[in-house]
Design goal:
The strands form three sheets. Strands 5-4-3-6-7-10 form a six-stranded mixed β-sheet, sandwiched between helices. A three-stranded antiparallel β-sheet has the order 1-2-11. Helix 7 packs parallel to helix 8 and helix 8 packs parallel to helix 9. Helix content is about 40%, strand content about 25%. The protein is of the alpha/beta class. The chain has two domains: about 90 residues, no CATH class; about 200 residues, von Willebrand factor, type A domain (Rossmann fold, 3-Layer(aba) Sandwich), CATH 3.40.50.
C-alpha cells in the first residue's frame, strides 16, 4: 500500500477513458447476439449432460481484452513512481521520559485512569519529535530503564503502550527514577539533554534523594521538566490489593509534593507543570514540545521513475494471448 501512495499520474484526465468500458461491453453483447443466434427446440432432453470446456472457458477472451484496455488506459495516463530523498542537518535532542508506575497512577480522576491518559499523550509527544533520540525510564518503589535512548520511535511507543502498574514494587521513588534517567544521558554527546518527569505522588521510597538526582543532572547539563498529575481534593484511588492481584479502590486525598517538583525544575533550568485534567496534560506536552524545538534543515530531492511501460507491456501480452487463444483453441467457424 505504501508503494501506491507514491504513484501519481502525469495525465490523470485520460483515466476518464475507462468510462468507455461499459459501452464496449454493450457493443460486444450486441455482436454476440448477432453471430450466435438462439434456436428454439421443442425439447432439450437429448442435449442434457452435453457440455464443452471450450464453451465454458470462451468467456475468458473478452475478459482478456477488457483487462488489456484498462491497462492501456493506465499506461496512457503515464503513471510515475516518486522516489523521495531527504538530507537532514540537525542537532537532535536527547529526551528521557520518566514515568511513575505506582499504584496511585490508576486513580480514576482521569478517564479511564491517570496512567492510560499519560501513556496516550506521551505517545503523541513522541510522534511530534521525529529527529530526536527518546528513551523511557519507569519507577515505582524502584526504577529501571524500559527503553534506552533511540531514534526508533516505534519501539519507544510500543514500550509506552504496554506500561502497567504492578510490574515494580509499589511506592514512589522519584529520586531513583530521575537518577536512572540521568545515568542514561550523562555520557551522551548531544548538546541538549532533557528529562520529563511525570508523577502523581510524594517521594517515599528509594535510596537516592530527588534533590541529589537533580544536582547530578545539573552537573551534566540535563534540563528536567516536572509534571504533577492529579486533580485537587479527593480521587478514587487504589487503597489496597486482593490476594488475586486486583486493586480495591476508595476515596483518597491527592497529594503531590509540588515544592519538590518546582525545586527540581528550577535547579536544572526546566519548568514545573500541574495537570489536573487530560486536556491540561495535553497542553503541557504541547508547551514542552514548543520549548524544546530543534533547528532542522531538510533538503528534499524527488526523483521519478516512469512506470507506464509495465502496464503497456502487460496489456500487449494479454492481447497476444487473446489472439492466440481466439484463433487456435477457441476458434469458431464463421
Amino acid at each position: 500500500m505504501s508503494i501506491l501512495k507514491n504513484i501519481h499520474f502525469v495525465n490523470p484526465e485520460l483515466l476518464g477513458l475507462l468510462l468507455l468500458l461499459p459501452l464496449i461491453g454493450f457493443f460486444y453483447y450486441l455482436r454476440y447476439r448477432k453471430y450466435f443466434v438462439a434456436l428454439r427446440l421443442s425439447s432439450l432432453q437429448a442435449l442434457e449432460g452435453i457440455t464443452s470446456w471450450r464453451s465454458k472457458w470462451r468467456a475468458i477472451l473478452p475478459a482478456l481484452r477488457a483487462c488489456a484496455f484498462v491497462l492501456m488506459v493506465i499506461a496512457l495516463a503515464r503513471p510515475q513512481l516518486t522516489l523521495k530523498e531527504e538530507r537532514i542537518n540537525a542537532d537532535s535532542i536527547d529526551i528521557m521520559m520518566v514515568m511513575d508506575l505506582s499504584s496511585s497512577m490508576l486513580a480514576q480522576d482521569f478517564q479511564p485512569d491517570r496512567l492510560e491518559v499519560s501513556k496516550e499523550l506521551a505517545i503523541e509527544f513522541v510522534d511530534k519529535r521525529p529527529y530526536d533520540r527518546i528513551g523511557l525510564t519507569v519507577f515505582a518503589g524502584e526504577a529501571f530503564t524500559q527503553c534506552p535512548l533511540t531514534t526508533d520511535h516505534r519501539v519507544v511507543k510500543e514500550f509506552l503502550a504496554n506500561l502497567q502498574c504492578g510490574i515494580l514494587e509499589d511506592g514512589t521513588a522519584i529520586g531513583m527514577g530521575l537518577a536512572t534517567a540521568v545515568n542514561r544521558m550523562k555520557d551522551s554527546p548531544s548538546k541538549s539533554k532533557v528529562a520529563i518527569l511525570l508523577t502523581d505522588g510524594v517521594n517515599n521510597a528509594g535510596y537516592v534523594k530527588p534533590i541529589t538526582a537533580a544536582e547530578i543532572g545539573r552537573e551534566f547539563n540535563i534540563k528536567v521538566y516536572t509534571i504533577g498529575v492529579g486533580t485537587t481534593g479527593d480521587a478514587l484511588t487504589p487503597v489496597s490489593r486482593r490476594s488475586d492481584g486486583r486493586y480495591i479502590f476508595g476515596l483518597a486525598r491527592v497529594e503531590i509534593d509540588e515544592p519538590l517538583m518546582q525545586q527540581i525544575a528550577e535547579m536544572t533550568g526546566g519548568r514545573y507543570y500541574r495537570a489536573t485534567s487530560a486536556e491540561g496534560l495535553e497542553q503541557i506536552y504541547d508547551q514542552i514540545d514548543q520549548l524544546e524545538k530543534t533547528k532542522v534543515e531538510v533538503t528534499s530531492i524527488k526523483r521519478y521513475s516512469e512506470e507506464f511501460y509495465r502496464f503497456a507491456g502487460i496489456a500487449l501480452l494479454l492481447l497476444i494471448l487473446e489472439f492466440i487463444l481466439r484463433y487456435t483453441i477457441f476458434r469458431t467457424i464463421p
